[in-house]
Amino acid sequence: MLRRDIFQVLADPTRRAIILLLATQPMTPNAIADHFDITRQAVSKHIRLMTESELLNQNQKGREIYYHLQTEKMEEIEKWLDQFRELVAKRFEQLDQVLATLKQKKNEKDSLI
Amino acid sequence: MLRRDIFQVLADPTRRAIILLLATQPMTPNAIADHFDITRQAVSKHIRLMTESELLNQNQKGREIYYHLQTEKMEEIEKWLDQFRELVAKRFEQLDQVLATLKQKKNEKDSLI
DNA sequence: TTTATTTGCAACCGAATGGTTTCTTGTCTT
DNA sequence: AAGACAAGAAACCATTCGGTTGCAAATAAA
Q1: Sorting pLDDT into bands at 50, 70 and 90, what band is B107?
Q2: For the domain bounded by A6-69, which CATH number is listed?
Q3: Is strand D within 7 Å of residue A62 (CB)?
Q4: Percent of chain A surpassing pLDDT 70
Q5: Is residue B23 very low, low, confident or very high in pLDDT (cuts 50, 70, 90)?
Q6: Contacts of B21 by beta carbon, 8 Å cutoff, 6+ apart
Q7: B113 touches strand C (CB under 7 A)
Q8: Is strand C within 7 Å of residue A29 (CB)?
Q9: Closest approach of chain B CAs to the CA of A7, in angstroms?
């Protein structure tokens, strides 16, 4: 199945590098391609996927197209991570509860001695 | 190219769901598969990838195998995001600097009037 | 108005992905 | 000891991925 989301974008190391590149300033496809050992067209395909995932916006200046990051899109990862952290925290709460119960049981037992 | 890292794991929605499932408690492949509309074997393949990515550990109890999350592995995402956020912050610093320079220029001009 | 530059698109290719079905192995149950 | 259950492995399949080369369109520069 064709998946076009931020997680899909992050899955490729070249795309992660492109994200870091564009984090500081907008760049043209040619400028981006200069940083890698792949053809400009390959970079173009990465750009297309990233645009379809709404992570990139374009800004045409003459024949050049400057691509810039839609940084809000990155928040989706944060949101997912928050969800994850919350569940992990809940697990530890349960663990704490178990420990507390054990402690209580132990005290009850002690009092019976 | 075969990539076996946490970003690759996150790329698939079923695997993300498995992560959230295992965030609260360890589970067997069968138990995990019950939550999805795919075969146990398909789940098994997801588990294998996640184990190879060092995100899952196993704990055999008789004929059952409980898989549990290696939560530290998730920190790699956080680390990458930190990197990203730092670069974005730098961009805004530069912008602030530009604005400050403009303001200074304006003041100099004003003083010439 | 040619010519060069920047970009995107299409077709192709080998490898990886996500699923299936079938089979084997190991461990409980009875 | 025999049958049921849990899990992994292998072979297969259609689709996607990440790359390539070649080409067309638009804009800039000569």
Answers
A1: low
A2: 1.10.10.10
A3: yes
A4: 89
A5: very high
A6: B27, B32, B35
A7: no
A8: yes
A9: 5
**CB-based contact A22:A31 (threshold 8 Å):** no
Q: What is the mean pLDDT of residues B78-88?
A: 96
How far, in Å, CA of B41 to CA of B9, rounded?
A: 17
Residue that the structure tokens 């509860």 belong to: A97
Query: Would you state the pLDDT for residue A95?
Result: 72
- Tell me the pLDDT of chain A averaged across its residues: 91
Give the separation between CA B90 and CA A101, rounded to whole angstroms.
50
What's the whole-number mean pLDDT along residues A59-72? 97
**pLDDT confidence tier of residue B94, bands split at 50, 70 and 90:** confident
Distance A110 CA to C4 C1' (A): 91
Instruction: Give burial (CB, 10 Å; 0-12/13-18/19+) of A96.
Output: exposed
The SS3 call for residue A16 is helix
State the DSSP string of chain B: ----SHHHHHTSHHHHHHHHHHHHS-B-HHHHHTTSSS-HHHHHHHHHHHHHTT-EEEEEETTEEEEEE-GGGGHHHHHHHHHHHHHHHHHHHHHHHHHHHHHHHHHHHHHH-
Alpha-carbon Rg of chain A, whole angstroms?
Answer: 24
The strand pairing partners of B56, in sequence order, are B69
Which nucleotide lies closest to A9 by the C1' atom and the CA atom? D17
Confidence of residue A103 (pLDDT cuts 50, 70, 90): low
